[in-house]
Amino acid sequence: MRPLCPPHILGLRPYRPGKPTEEVERELGIANAIKLASNENPSGPSPAAVAAARAALANVHRYPDATCHLLRTELARFHGVHPTEIAVGNGSNELIDLGCRVFAPPTGHVVFGVPSFYCYQQSTIAHGLPHTAVPLRDHLHWDVDALLAAMQPETALLFIAQPNNPTGAYIAEPELVRLLRDTPPWVTVVMDEAYVEYADASDFVSALRHRHLRERLMVLRTFSKAHGLAGLRIGYAVAPAAMVDPIDRVRPPFNAGSVGQAAARAALGDRAHVERSVALNRRERARMAGELAALGLEVAPSQANFLLVDVRRPCGEVFDALLQKGVIVRPMDAPLTTHLRITVGLPSENDRLLGSLSEVLRG
Question: Residue 316 burial by CB count (10 A; 0-12/13-18/19+): exposed, middle or buried?
C-alpha cells in the first residue's frame, strides 16, 4: 500500500511550544505557576485592543474582511508604504510557510541559520525543499560570511531572524547592508523582525531602512510580542507589491479573523502601551542579566524580550526542577543542550525565577 504521507513529513518533529500554566498546574497539582517560556508580553495587550476585540465579537457570525483592507491601510500608513505592499497572515508563521510555498520552486534551495526559529526549518522540510543550515558563530552570533557562502544558483530563500530567536543576537547595520547587497538578486530574503521593538543597540536597524538595496526582500512583523496579541494570531509582511500579489493568490481565504484585525488596528494606534512594554523589558532584561551572571551563569547578550542562559548542566534537568516550583522556561535543543531561554517577565515573576533558579542550582 502507498504510504500515508511522504517520509520527509514523518521525519519532522512538531513545533514544541512552551507549556501552558494550566497544564503544569493540573499535572503537578500546584497553583500560581508562571510562564517565562514563550516570549509573550507580560504586560498583556493594550486596553484599547481588548475593547476593539470585544466590540468585534458582536459580528463574528459574519466572515471577516478577506482583504484586511482597514488593517492593511493603517499598516501601510504606519510604515510609509502602499497598501499593496502589505500582506497579512495568521501570525507571521503563516507567512513563513507561504514564503516557502510561493517563492521556492520544487528544487529551490533554502538557507537558514541554526540555532534559530525552528519554523524556518519546519516549513522548508515540510515543502520538501533542499536546504543548508548555517551554524551560528559560537552557536550564538550570525555569520554573514557563512550565510553568503551557502548561496547556490538554486537558492530561492534566505530566512533571518533579526533579532534572532533563541539567541537574542542581531546583525549590526554594516553587516546587514552587506548581506542585503551581496545576497544574489534571485534570492528572496525573508527578514523576520518579530522582536524588533525590543532592540535598542546603537547599530541595530530594521531591514525596512534598506529596502532600496534589493527587490526581493520580505520583512515580517507580528502583533504577538510587543503588542501582546499572541492569542489572536496576526502577523504581516512588508514587501514589494510584486511579492505580495502571489501571496494573496494562495493564502487561505479569511486567514485573519475579524476579532484579530480589529484588535491589531487598535494596538497599532496605542504606541504608549508598546513604549511602556519596551521600557519595562529594557529595565528588567538588564537586571536579570546581571543577577543571572552573579549566579555564575553565562548570559548571551540579547536584543529581544528573553535571555539565553547557559546553566552549565543538562538544561532538561534544570527545566524539570524549575517546573516543580511552578516556573516554566524553555529548554533548548542541540547544540544548546546546557541552555535555557527565559522570557523577561514582570518584576515579581523575574524575582521568582531568580530565587527558584538559585535554589535549583544550589541543590
Answer: middle
Q: Give, for 128, the enclosing helix (H) or strand (E).
A: none
Alpha-carbon distance 227 to 271, whole Å? 9
Average pLDDT, the chain: 96
* Domains observed in the chain: 7-44+272-362 (3.90.1150.10), 47-270 (3.40.640.10)
Per-residue pLDDT tens over the stretch 156-202: 999 999 999 999 999 999 999 999 999 999 999 999 999 999 999 99
The grid cell for 319 is 527545566
Burial class of residue 119 (count of CB atoms within 10 Å of its CB; 0-12, 13-18, 19+): buried
198 within 8 A of 226, measured Cβ to Cβ: yes
Q: What are phi and psi of 7, to 5 degrees?
A: -60, -35
- In the chain, count H helices and then E strands: 13, 13
Separation CA 25–CA 327 (nearest Å): 10
Question: Which of the 8 DSSP states describes residue 158?
Answer: E
71 three-state secondary structure = helix
For 326, phi then psi, to 5°, come to 80, 25
221-273 pLDDT per residue, tens: 999 999 999 999 999 999 999 999 999 999 999 999 999 999 999 999 999 99
Extract the C-alpha cell encoding 35.
510562564
**Can you tell me which residue has the cell 520580505?**
218
Residues whose CB is less than 8 angstroms from the CB of residue 91 and which lie 6 or more positions away in sequence, other chains included:
222, 224, 233, 234, 235
The kind and range of the H/E element at 69 are: helix 69-79
User: In what helix (H) or strand (E) does residue 189 lie, and over which residues does it extend?
Assistant: strand 188-192
Tell me the pLDDT tens digit for each residue of 254-263.
Answer: 999 999 999 9
Higher-pLDDT residue of 116 and 5 is: 116
Bridge partners of 157, per DSSP, are 110, 188
d(CA 345, CA 352): 10
Lowest mean pLDDT among 25-39, 64-78, 128-142, 220-234: 25-39
